[in-house]
Design a protein that fits this description.
elongated; about 85% helix
Length: about 250
């Protein structure tokens, strides 16, 4: 019963934070510097990790698909399998998990520290809404950067799959055949579904991490607890939302 009450309270406080942030959307053009800073922290600094992981995910997909499909004479479909898997599922989920682990944890730690050391209270005393300067620029930045990260993850993953398909002996599919299969079975809707997923996952991750950070109580030990709770909650929400969003988009 206590756990259910805590979950409902968390949902309620998260929705309240969203409403308070939405009320200050008109101030966003005046916060260009904060928005650009958050785009750099969320997008640019995460990009190398996204590229490395997506390259090897695409490579492993091609390797596993080639090993399995050679028994059925279906190696020519490797490009479509890698392309659809990355665009519709693995790309947005992988990027969201990276954002939760790297960006979400940093956001929760920063805001929890500000709350514990009464910097958030100081902002409220000066009549500066924390939702306006601490939450809104981050939400805007994640909405802007998540599609970029997801598209780059798809492209790099496709390239990794093509490289493995071309140079691994037991696959032996040249790049032209690989990309021909990818183009034949890949549709614009598949890419858009992945981008919609990425937007939803990223927005929820940042909102939840901001809310948990701003609701931290206690001393320095609670900062670590808040970071752990933010990351774990984000990962669970990503996987839960993935099912419902996938079902809605099919």
């Amino acid at each position: 019963m206590k756990q259910l009450t805590a979950i409902l309270e968390g949902i309620g406080s998260t929705l309240q934070l969203l409403a308070r942030s939405a009320a200050h959307v008109g101030t966003l053009p005046r916060q260009r510097a904060r928005f650009i800073e958050q785009c750099y922290l969320i997008g640019y600094t995460t990009l190398p990790i996204v590229a490395i992981l997506s390259f090897f995910i695409g490579s492993v997909l091609a390797l596993q698909a080639g090993y399995s499909m050679q028994n059925f004479g279906a190696k020519q479909f490797i490009g479509s399998l890698v392309g659809l898997s990355l665009a519709r599922e693995l790309g947005p989920v992988m990027v969201a998990i990276l954002v939760a682990g790297r960006v979400g944890s940093a956001i929760a730690a920063e805001l929890a520290s500000m709350k514990v050391y009464q910097e958030v209270d100081a902002l409220e005393t000066m009549n500066i809404p924390p939702a306006r300067i601490l939450v809104l620029p981050r939400l805007a930045a994640i909405l802007f950067m998540m599609p970029v990260l997801a598209i780059i993850a798809d492209l790099v993953g496709w390239f990794g799959g093509a490289l493995v398909s071309n140079y691994v002996n037991f696959i032996g599919i040249d790049s032209e055949a690989y990309f021909a299969a990818l183009r034949r079975y890949m549709h614009f809707k598949d890419v858009m579904n992945g981008l919609i997923k990425a937007e939803i996952f990223g927005f929820v991750v940042v909102l939840v991490c901001c809310n948990i950070g701003l609701n931290t109580r206690g001393g320095p030990r609670e900062i670590g607890a808040s970071v752990t709770r933010a990351v774990v909650t984000s990962l669970i929400l990503i996987l839960v939302l993935d099912y419902f969003v996938t079902k809605a988009l099919l």
